[in-house]
Design brief:
Number of domains: 2
CATH topology of the largest domain: Rossmann fold
Bound molecules: adenosine-5'-triphosphate, magnesium ion
Shape: globular
Order of helices and strands: EEEHEEHEHHHEHEHEEHH
Low-confidence stretches: none
Structural class: alpha/beta
CATH superfamily of the largest domain: P-loop containing nucleotide triphosphate hydrolases
Mean pLDDT: 95
Largest sheet: 6 strands, mixed
Radius of gyration: 19 Å
CATH architecture of the largest domain: 3-Layer(aba) Sandwich
Number of strands: 10
Strand order of the largest sheet: 6-7-8-3-9-10
Number of helices: 9
Length: 259
């Protein structure tokens, strides 16, 4: 079954075309990596899926349901970790944040309490449980935002730069967590600039550049199936594919005249 289907998605900001007839299909149970240069359109794509942006044209379906015509129903089963943890309520305490999310998603009181306890323990945030979100560090905010999603256990989880700001132990934990979510049948879409992590955990990867998908492949085939356009040798890493195929590829010399 297709978990997420994006067809011919276009989005412009003023005269700037940011998503240009983008197509993407993610099967249920996949860990899918979406990578691309800064400004390529990853977050804009996610904001369209989150229903935070009106797109100009195209169609987004989640588990076979059209997003625009089934907004409330569709979004119940999606959890999005935003790039800058924008979903957190600054002036709520950590505990209150999770309570609020649990209530919005209709969980019963006992379930909310049990899960909140486990989540604070899992993310080593117990001593911040009763502190205001505005007092959390960047990494703690990521953990709390992720906890808010895990709390209601959606089937499609989208993570925009989840590793950004996390310490080494937490990165390890989150990678394991992503693999566990997959084992439990969840579908995960993840963006990251840390390509070794993407190579490590994803089943399939797509590269977006200037609002278009320029490459897509099962992750394990990248090193054997494709050849570098310059050397005609197999790629040695996802990083090499990225540098070969995106406009960021060229490394300029002598750019800063005063250095
Ligand atoms: N609200 C907005 N108004 C105007 N332009 C925007 C807005 N949001 C994004 N853009 C533009 O859309 C383009 C894509 O931005 P987006 O945030 O989707 O990139 P990204 O791939 O997530 O990059 P990064 O790797 O830096 O997070 C950029 O040129 C950005 O300036
Ligand atoms: Mg982004």
């Amino acid at each position: 079954m297709t978990a997420l289907s994006i067809k011919l998605l276009s989005k412009s900001f003023g005269s700037q075309v940011v998503l240009d007839n983008l197509d993407l299909e993610i099967n249920q149970g996949q860990i899918f990596g979406l990578i691309g240069p800064n400004g390529a359109g990853k977050t804009t794509t996610i904001n369209c899926i989150a229903d935070l942006l009106n797109f100009n044209s195209g169609k987004i379906e989640i588990f076979g349901q059209d997003l625009v015509s089934n907004r409330i129903e569709v979004k119940k089963n999606v959890g999005i970790l935003f790039e800058n943890t924008e979903s957190l309520f600054e002036y709520l305490k950590g505990e209150e944040q999770l309570q609020f999310v649990g209530e919005i998603y209709g969980l019963d009181k006992t379930t909310i309490e049990t899960r909140i306890y486990e989540l604070f323990e899992y993310f080593n945030l117990e001593i911040f449980r009763w502190k205001s979100v505005s007092e959390y560090s960047k990494g703690m905010r990521k953990k709390l935002a992720l906890a808010s999603i895990l709390l209601y256990n959606p089937d499609l989880i989208i993570m925009d730069e989840p590793f950004d700001g996390l310490d080494t132990l937490t990165v390890k934990k989150v990678k394991e967590l992503i693999k566990t979510l997959k084992k439990n049948g969840k579908t995960i879409l993840i963006t990251s600039h840390i390509l070794s992590y993407i190579e490590d955990i994803t089943d399939e990867v797509a590269i977006i550049d200037n609002g278009k998908i320029v490459f897509q492949s099962p992750t394990k085939e990248i090193r054997t199936k494709f050849k570098n356009s310059t050397t005609n040798e197999n790629y040695e890493s996802l990083e090499e594919v990225f540098l070969d195929l995106t406009t960021e590829g060229g490394i300029q010399e002598n750019v800063l005249s005063w250095l």
